[in-house]
Please model this.
Amino acid sequence: MDTAAGTSSAPEQARGPVGETTAGAALPGSMPGSTARPAARSTAGAASTLSPLVPLPGGTYRRGSTEFYPDEAPVHEVTVGPFEIEQHPVTNAQFAAFVDATGYVTVAERPLDPADYPGVAVEDLQPGALVFTPTAGPVNLSDWRQWWRWQPGARWSTPHGPDSSVEGREDHPVVQVSYEDAQAYAAWAGRSLPTEAEWEYAGRGGLDGARFAWGDEYQPDGELLANHWQGSFPYRNTGARGWVGTSPVGTFPANGFGLDDMTGNVWEWTSSFYTPNHAVDARTAEEVAAARDALTIEMPACCAPSTGAAMAAAHPAPHDPLGSRAPVEGAGGVPGDSSDALAAASAEPGSAIPRKVLKGGSHLCAPEYCLRYRPAARSPQAVDTATSHIGFRCVVRPPVAVAPSMPASTRNLLG
Ligand SMILES: [Cu+2]
Model:
């Protein structure tokens, strides 16, 4: 494994104009039923630092796409209830406030238990995370290990390793957060993580069925509208509006709901377990697993190490997979996501670590390689894995009235 903290390849670093756009800056965009952005809601201990919430009415929309990757199909109608969603991804400054207030230690900062990794040298069990590193030149794009490395000391505050920091990047999205970390922040904020259906509804910004968050045309009037890879992947990134890597939230225009960075910049965690396609979303875990195992179409693995195999690349499989203590959301009014069986079915074959759906694509998505900076795009991610291009944002739902007579088929539509 690569344990070289001082590796010769320079990790990707933003080199754009720091501070040119401030977090939460008002940008053009309309919200349903309102012309002004709402102020941040007051929640215990966190009020002044949380992202503003944008209220969305909910409704029925067409989820998915048949134009790109098989896991986005079929296009189908989904109904979501009203909810509020954070205007932009959680920033480094916001995550720092959470850590300051709680002393929270992220998964990437926790030591790996030698008992879980017999035969592995103790020095190879340092806390760390996955860091993207550009290659020297063109490489075979089928092997993500060429541009992802396990970096000891990589964590949210030093996202590219011990020599990096988030200083001057306070208004960039936080990265190197696992699913558990995102959930912990949301709980502190009195908020939740969105379901996949909620996220895609929000990401579409009211443009039902559109290819991108801004419409069907990739670059209307030649304008780049999301932070995704510019140049040749994975070795030359000429920058998105000057930014290589993450960009300050709100650097690009908001979508029709007034939401910043819904596509591009960083992938965002959702609470939904990954399914091989939408046709099996509302079925049993057995059907999901069967569909997963039958999925023989070779999908480009995005710009991301999509599964716990990333960890396995650096470490042999632990006896007690981290997934076994992975939090499962669902009992409190998030339909469809509560089943242990669905968690198991979401895992990569041969792995016990559940995978959640990531949405939105990231600054690493390169058009010639990964067309996932779209609302319909999805990517499976093992819940224990943190990388330099995954972040999150939170939602707030109205209190759910208990409706014991609600038929299961209706519940599933919400998931
Ligand atoms: Cu991608």
Summary: DSSP finds seven helices and 13 strands in the chain. The longest strand covers residues 267-273.
